[in-house]
Amino acid sequence: MMALRERAVVSLRSVPSLPKHVRIQYDPVRQAFAVLSPEKIFWPNDISLDILRRCDGRSTAGDIIAGLAADYEAEQEAVATDVIAFLQEWSDKLLVRL
Amino acid sequence: MSTPLLPPIGMLAELTHRCPLQCPYCSNPLELLKANRELDTETWLALFSEAADLGVLQVHLSGGEPTLRRDLEQLIAGLAGRGVYTNLITAGVGIVEGRIEAFAEAGLDHLQLSFQGARPATTDRIGNHKGAHEKKLETARRARAAGLPLTINAPIHRHNIEEVPEFIDLALALGAERLEIANVQYAGWALTNRDQLMPEREAVDRQAEIVAEAQERLAGIINIDFVTPDYFAIYPKPCMGGWARDAFMVTPDGTVLPCHAAQTIPSLSFERFEPRRLSSIWADSPAFNAFRGTDWMQEPCRSCDRREIDWGGCRCQAMAIAGDAAATDPACAKSPIHARMAMLIDEAKRIATAPSREEAFVYRRIGAVTESA
């Protein structure tokens, strides 16, 4: 039996990125941004898209939360809850690397 | 029509019917096309370009064995150049060294590799190809080394359903990000071999438990997609996400179909790319419009609150079992002939476990059932 890979758990220090095989792409036919991944296509809303775009492999989850809270003029704590839940969900689907 | 016409999002391109394996559940039609009927490079590239214009975002390159096409790198590059997400569906046998790297270089996004068994003897026997398992392991290693994400596809039936836990271990060991535990769909060659392939109820129940447990245990480690077996179902699958709703497929000679088995519906006739354009086939082909939306439905589908969830299920299964392509998919518990599914399961068990039984797969090969024109 091989050594198992482990499930990644989001923290404020996580540095999320999109794997090479997951990409955000504008679709001129539907005039919307799609996330293309193996076998599945997602149509994220504006906020989800904003989070995914900030998963650049340099910013920490903490940076992303601070940036979003500033841009949306929202409470950092509320933003943090949503962003961490979002990143965990996308990490569990192997669409975001932590 | 009750629902607006949407652009197609996905396309399955069966580049060739040639294949080194002879799996008895192949989804290709019984009348396999020979190499001289295949579209040439230019025509495939033109077709892909039109597909991208039409709104296709994801193309699955399949077959037969698509790597037998010497121009596969060119086809991948053509799609990648249009921003189309490419998924190569391969048996992973006989791919010469350096080619997987060339596919990745050309812009391939993802590779799906089939395993007929989790054990070498099973893989070799089901595909009727000695040494196939070892070659597949090598293909998986090369794909990972080339940086390609990997899905392992395991078509499940009576002869490998007990290997499901081993398939999960295998997919983990190979570094796959996705595993499809895909119970065989009884169309094409699988319909011919149904009595040999149909699993037993107890095995199906056990499989469902094993998969559910593994999905939970391995969340965030590997995605396990479970394609459940139709004959044991309560509700049918929304086959192709609904007939001609957001996907289509193209056969090696350029015939454009709503699904794999659509040619088994005798009342329909299908058109080929060139002279016809994809956009006009998608919008205007009588075959594509025959079961689009919900207007074609009979009862119990017509008044069912799941009609836009299941889309009536599979038209080809309705044809094969109910003898009417517009009937409710018999996999649905609301179908008046749903009980026939249970009878077919029992009948298959009786035949497959008969004392005098000899293994009698009709292996998939040209001329095994009917000669292609």
Set down the secondary structure blueprint.
The complex is a heterodimer of chains A (98) and B (373).
Chain A: E1 23-27, E2 32-37, E3 40-42, H1 46-53, H2 61-71, H3 76-92
Chain B: E1 10-14, H1 41-54, E2 58-62, H2 72-81, E3 85-90, H3 99-106, E4 110-114, H4 120-126, H5 132-145, E5 150-156, H6 164-173, E6 178-183, H7 188-192, H8 194-197, H9 201-217, E7 223-227, E8 247-250, E9 256-257, H10 278-284, H11 286-290, H12 307-310, H13 315-322, H14 339-352
Parallel strand pairs in B: 1-2, 1-8, 2-3, 3-4, 4-5, 5-6, 6-7
Antiparallel strand pairs in B: 8-9
How many strands, what sense, and barrel or not for the largest sheet of chain B? Answer: 9 strands, mixed
- Oligomer category: heterodimer
Q: Mean pLDDT of chain A, nearest integer?
A: 93
Note the beta-strand portion of chain B. Answer: 5-15%
| Count of helix runs of chain B | 14
